[in-house]
Each structure stands twice: as structure tokens, then as C-alpha cells.
Design goal:
11 helices, 2 domains, 12 strands, 20% strand, Rossmann fold, 38% helix, alpha/beta, 305 residues, 5-stranded parallel sheet
Length: 305
């Protein structure tokens, strides 16, 4: 049986976290044994992964415990055949653990596409640059779209073993439900004459919610009979930057900030249009899931397959 340890930055509600969960959920348990290391905490997916009888280790890493966390991760990874990392920070620390401290096989899962300076945090780009130098020593690089692969090669990534594995979708879960549509619209007090737009994601520079809110302001001038549902991490009333932006454009009565939600298929069924304002997507889980729920999508021309 092949023993695989996955290292991921955190287990909050993001595309990489979701795909890791789906991979673990559908893995052949007779062939593969998995455990997961989260550099930060359990987030949303920690409990879900543990419910699959898969062990989750949380390092709660910070500047003061960095060395201790590395040694702890080394001890955990020592008995595994393959170290599989998700997201740039985990790729970097995974390289130190797998290649420098243990000499293990290492796989990087790269699920990002737009590497422009104005669409990323400076510290993220510094990590990406460091990873580009290390990439030639990694056993395999996996991308979830051809565009992500091309952009990383242009950025300086080098490796002979490159593979694109597109995202997969659970069509038995993500499908349109008339009953869910009626239930959610009643729960949210949405009138029958109102069109419902929805976006699902996290509060991040890549999602460009500033442009989305500005667009809603233009829509309001032409047709005020709509509601915008926003759900995801930090898309809630505690996010002062977002609530101030909504208030600035007089959209407080139009935008429903729901924060993280568990029943995304039901919310998608309740909507009429899915909207993505992202500056960058590699292969958007959210758009694919909206399409699976039979929603027309209005999206920016980013990402690929």
C-alpha cells in the first residue's frame, strides 16, 4: 500500500482544499493510505477529512515556532512514501521537509494562474519565485489547467515531469433542485420578481470584488429588481472593507453577505445567474459547479482547462 502525506497551507473553504477533500474521498483505500498536514488549522475541511477516517495534523505554524513545526512535520512525514503539497507556501516548506530533511518523493499541486504583480501579494510572488528555482528538483509538478502550466513555465518553473489534471465535479451533488430553489428564496425573503445573482469564493485580491460591486451599481441604475448573494470566507458583515464598499455604492439592500455556507448546491439552485469577477483563475471550481446546477454564468475571461 502506497503511503501519501498531503501538506496544505490551510483547510479553509478554497478550491485547493475542496479538491484535496474530493481526492481523499474518492481514493482507493485498498491501494493508498493518506494523512494530511495543515500548516495552520483545521478550517472547514478538517472535520470533513477526519470523517473519512483520515488523520489531520495541524501545525499552527508561525514565526516563533517555525523550526519546531518543521521538525514535527519531518517526524510525521518520515514513514510516508510520497509527500504531496498543495499551494505555494506548502510547496516551499514541503520541499525543505521532503527533499532536504528526508529525501522523499515530492509532488507539487499548483492551482494558481495569474502571476501579475497587481493581482498578487508581494510575499506570495516572492514564494513563487523561490519555488521556481526549486521546481527542477521536484519529482512531479501537477497543474489543474494548461494555462496555469504555461504561465508558470514563463515565470521560470522547470521540470521534465509536468502533468495537467483538470478539476473534477460531483454531479450527483451539484445539480439543480426546484425544491431547494423555492426553500432558499423563501428563507432569504426574495420576491418572485427579483433576479438573483450569486458568487461563491473567498475575500481575496484575485477575486476583484471591487469591480463586482461597481458593476452592481451600474446594474442598479438599469434594473433595480435584483439581489446579489455573496458566500465564502470573509464575505460577511464582519468584513469592514467589503461592507464599506457596498455602502459607498448604496447597495446594502441589494447584497446578501452569507459568509461560508455548507449547502452551496441549494444556493446555486436559488439563483438565476452566476457571476465571477476574478482577475485570475486556473480552473474555477465555482464556475463549474454553477454550470452543473444549470446556471448561466457571467465571468471574466480568465483561467483555462
Amino acid at each position: 500500500m502506497k503511503r501519501i502525506i498531503h501538506i496544505i497551507t490551510d483547510l479553509n473553504n478554497g478550491g485547493a482544499e475542496k479538491m484535496l477533500y474530493k481526492l481523499l474521498k474518492n481514493s482507493d483505500k485498498d491501494k493508498y493510505y493518506h494523512e494530511v498536514i495543515s500548516l495552520i488549522d483545521e478550517g472547514i475541511y478538517g472535520e470533513k477529512i477526519k470523517a473519512l477516517n483520515i488523520k489531520v495534523h495541524c501545525l499552527k505554524i508561525n514565526k516563533s515556532n517555525l523550526l519546531i513545526s518543521l521538525l514535527k512535520a519531518r517526524k510525521i512525514c518520515k514513514s510516508f512514501d510520497v509527500v504531496d503539497t498543495w499551494l505555494y507556501h506548502a510547496d516551499f516548506l514541503g520541499f525543505i521537509i521532503a527533499k532536504i530533511l528526508l529525501n522523499k518523493k515530492l509532488i507539487w499541486n499548483i492551482r494558481h494562474c495569474n502571476l501579475d504583480k497587481d493581482a498578487n501579494k508581494l510575499r506570495t510572488l516572492k514564494i513563487v519565485k523561490a519555488n521556481s528555482f526549486l521546481s527542477r528538483y521536484v519529482n512531479h509538478l501537477i497543474f489543474n489547467s494548461n494555462k496555469a502550466l504555461d504561465n508558470h513555465l514563463r515565470f521560470g518553473y522547470k521540470n521534465k515531469k509536468l502533468k495537467v489534471i483538470p478539476n473534477g465535479f460531483e454531479l450527483d451533488i451539484f445539480r439543480y433542485s426546484k425544491n431547494d430553489r423555492e426553500k432558499i428564496r423563501e428563507l432569504l425573503n426574495i420576491n418572485s420578481g427579483e433576479k438573483v445573482l450569486i458568487t461563491v469564493g473567498r475575500w481575496d485580491i484575485q477575486k476583484d470584488y471591487y469591480t463586482l460591486i461597481k458593476s452592481l451599481n451600474e446594474l442598479k441604475k438599469r434594473n433595480p429588481h435584483f439581489k446579489m448573494i455573496m458566500c465564502g470566507n470573509k464575505l460577511d458583515v464582519t468584513n469592514e472593507e467589503l461592507t464599506n464598499l457596498i455602502s459607498r455604492y448604496g447597495l446594502k439592500e441589494k447584497v446578501l453577505l452569507l459568509g461560508p455556507q455548507n449547502d452551496i448546491p441549494a444556493l446555486l439552485s436559488a439563483a438565476d445567474v452566476y457571476v465571477s469577477s476574478s482577475l485570475g483563475e486556473s480552473f474555477s471550481n465555482a464556475i463549474g459547479e454553477a454550470m452543473a446546477c444549470e446556471l448561466p454564468c457571467v465571468v471574466t475571461d480568465v483561467g483555462g482547462f
